Amino acid sequence: MPDAYILGIESSCDETAAAVVRSGEEIASNVVFSQIATHQPYGGVVPELASREHLRAIVPVVRKALADAGQTYQSVDAIAVTQGPGLAGALLVGISYAKALAFALDKPLIAVNHLEGHIHAVLLEECRKGNHDLRFPVLALVVSGGHTHLYLAKRHNNSWSYENIGHTRDDAAGEAFDKVAKLLGLGYPGGPIVDKLSIYGDSRAVKFPPSQLKHRDRNDQKAGRTYDGLRFDFSYSGIKTAVLRYVETHDLQGSIAERHNAISAIPQPKLEDYLSHCDQQTLDLVASFQRALVEDLVGKTLAAARACHVATLFVTGGVAANQELRRQFESDAAREGISVYFPSRPLSTDNAAMIAAAAYPKFLAADFAPMDFSAEAGMVLR
Ligand code: KG4
Ligand code: ZN
Q1: Which atom of ligand 1 is nearest to the CA of 349?
Q2: DSSP letter at 168?
Q3: H or E stretch including 22?
């Protein structure tokens, strides 16, 4: 197969990223400019601000990715960019820049689904390690701030197909981490903070009822699916409400307001800052929340893996960086003879190396995007 250096561009949410990847297996460069500092005061991503930050960052980020890789605009073989899903205005910045580059340089342009990128982050990681013996089909759990989706991923020579067999009915798992952290005055983004603080709490202190899915998903009914959709779906708005109830019934509002004010006054709070503003009850609550969510994610995903008779599991997306999630998946999957793979931490959260990697099979298949393609905020992966 011919070697190809692909420049990937990602701007779907709050990271402006560019990377150069050789033939879907070697990362020549991987630059991520995070907008966390911009959005932190608002406790979440502000779409309009995200677009403006992408505009500011995109040119220097792409230049750095090329320079780090020892490449130039002329030397790369193709330009790949995230088409969706994501924030429309944010996506448009990456897409417009990628189109302009492809047009001016007369290079092929490749449109990539962000979720396919997350799945290819795992393949990229395994290729880098020299592991080319994965068993297919693969069950992929994409678990991020916007998604908690299960896909059966199949490879047909150079092309891939994806069947969605489960998704969250309400909040995504990362969204639940972010909302609970905000609710407890811990700031944004919540996942990494909850991850670090949970080690200091008793995860059995607070009991959360298991999430219940009472109704069939309307979208599945419309699609006429025959499998039992209930079994593979997730729901995380209930646990967020349960944390809120706990806060109210245990009168934690005052201490939360103090913590919020203290932490937001620190420009870049460290673990010690969070710890010094959290009492044991709060640490126990945080650890119990994380444990309940992780147990649900792992239990439902493994049930889907059993039902679909797959022996290989990919866990990817921002929440895949979570230590407890990794530990639990590794131990529970091993017990069932299922191999589980994660991207490295930097490839778990949003990055452009995964976009350039996912573009390589499309490059080989000459599956190029027309110049008039546009952002698809709600893009579906098939
Ligand atoms: O994949 P990603 O970078 O962006 C989206 O496509 O959404 O995922 C971001 C999400 C956020 O909700 C963030 O809180 C969560 O991933 N996250 C984590 C961890 N690191 C990031 N959640 C739990 N534990 C972590 N260590
Ligand atoms: Zn993502």
Answers
A1: 3
A2: B
A3: strand 15-22
d(CA 167, CA 207): 24
Written as six digits, the tokens of 68 are 């780090």
d(CA 87, CA 52): 12
Could you tell me which residues come within 8 angstroms of residue 331 by beta carbon, excluding any fewer than 6 positions away? none
pLDDT tens digits, one per residue of 129-184: 999 888 889 999 999 999 999 999 999 887 899 999 999 999 999 999 999 999 99
Give the closest residue (by CA) to ligand 1 atom 2.
318
Backbone angles phi, psi at 177, to 5 degrees: -60, -45
Between CA 69 and CA 330 the distance in angstroms is 34
Query: Which atom of ligand 1 is closest in space to residue 86's alpha carbon?
Result: 6
Q: pLDDT tens for residues 188-211? A: 899 999 999 999 999 999 999 888
Candidate of 114, 239, 319, 351 to mutate for ligand 1, largest count of ligand atoms within 8 Å of Cβ: 319
What whole-number distance in Å separates Cα of residue 117 and Cα of residue 121? 6
Nearest CA to ligand 1 atom 23: 191
Ligand 1: residue of 349, 351, 354, 381 to mutate (most ligand atoms within 8 A of CB) is 349
Measured in angstroms, how far is the CA atom of residue 144 from the centroid of ligand 2? 6
Note the pTM of the prediction, 2 decimals. 0.94
